[in-house]
Amino acid sequence: VPAPSAATGTARVLVASNRGPVAFADGPDGELLLRRGAGGLVSGLGQAAADAPPDADRLVWVCAALGDADRRAASRAPDGRLDRAGFDTGRAAVRILDIDQEIFDRAYNAVANRVLWFVQHLLYAPASQPVFGARFRQDWAAYQAYNAMFAEALAQEAAPGACVLVQDYHLMLVPGQLRRMRPDLRIAHFSHTPWAPPDYFRILPDDVQAQLLHGLLGADRLGFLTDAWADAFERCAEALPGVAVHDRQVRVLAQADGAQADGVEADGGRLVRIGVHPLGVDVGELRDRAAQADVAGRAAELAALAGGRRLIVRVDRTELSKNIVRGLLAYRELLRAQPRWRGQVMHLVCAYPSRHNLPEYREYTQAVRRLAAEINDEFAEDDWCPLHLEVTDDYPRSIAALSLAEVLVVNPVRDGMNLVAKEGAALSRRDAVLVLSREAGAYAEMGGAALVVNPFDVQATAAALHTALIMPAAERRRRAAELAAVAGRLPPRIWFTDQLAALAAAP
Ligand code: F6P
């Protein structure tokens, strides 16, 4: 971790996330094309950043370069600030960190997506438990270094007393590292994933557990998407020596090495406040987007494909926690157990490749493709294709699919929130029935109006699909209205400004 730095910057509000609000791609003539970044976090924060007052130094967003095009863009500016390199990044100044490729791969792939993601989503099967040996230690050192690069950049950009909002499991060490460099800052961290129960979190090496927890506890405020994830975090934190938890507050007396915690007052500890902020969607903005011509074009294509049949839809990154394979098995079970639906329905599966640098994710994509083909082999008729699989990410098509769905399947084995459930509720033009896993964060708010399933129970999921298809129109309408109201309860802009206000008011 770099030594405390005397130099301070001018930004009053800073955001840090692995994936930033913009991404670059190579144009046909070798020029750099600037695009909106991908992923749920960007949809969440992009609007809030765009709303920041027109003072370029007020909001600085620090992120990692995710490819060669990003790296070349960053290299145009001596300090990596894209606005200074002549790119229009809206009202947020974006600082893109050119991280050494090996460090990035180890931190993002090996630690964040293979270990931390697996732990928080309980994805390790008994036969494939992780092995934490010498190689993991190198990966872990890279994760520490990658986090330190973010902390250093934030420390350079932040004005005295500025508010820093750090996002997600890639950057769990940043709050502690940054506090050591800049104790004057107000620091928040938000977890967009679930949090594992203590017995499962204990899979991690003891020192790694302590570093992660103390890294986060370097913040003034910690945010989670649901009470369940906040509770699980608290139960992990209270197992640490020198840490006491009470009433959504964590009192930190000692650090991982037993030394007194940074910033501890004589009266007994530094207080870290825990907040639950269930991110929603901007219903008006989504509906405006759905009204645009490209979405209408996609909707016409999908309607032609369905040929008047009722659409069962899912939209996911192809990723193990999303439980796509069991979702497809449930559809197969439906067609086997309820032959009346053969020829009457079509399952539109949008499953977009994700994190293909890791074998687990590649194998999962193959399993999805195989099962989709098997289902079509078993049931297809001359004039009926039971399942249509789309693997090329296409945002207008996803919006069109959600608006045409009669049934929306969201069956993750575990999910921080699952914004697709909320997007689907906001966009539905056919009063879509939501078949929702009780393990998704969205269940806490939407469980009452959805058909709730145990994501491991394929037969129960098939039965829920059947119930959705036979549900009377009036009941569909009532449930859909309730789901749409819930989806828009905490749109990203308010979600962000609420947290910023709470952080700015922190003692
Ligand atoms: O669920 C947490 C989250 O950070 C989302 O915000 C985001 O969509 C995803 O995980 C990250 O995916 P990726 O590895 O593609 O950046």
From TrEMBL:
A Pfam family of this chain: Glyco_transf_20
* Matching SUPFAM superfamilies: UDP-Glycosyltransferase/glycogen phosphorylase
In terms of Gene3D superfamilies, this protein maps to: Glycogen Phosphorylase B
The record, for PANTHER family, names: BCDNA.GH08860, TREHALOSE-6-PHOSPHATE SYNTHASE
Entry similarity comment: Belongs to the glycosyltransferase 20 family.
Protein name per Swiss-Prot or TrEMBL:
Trehalose-6-phosphate synthase
- Origin organism is Frankia umida
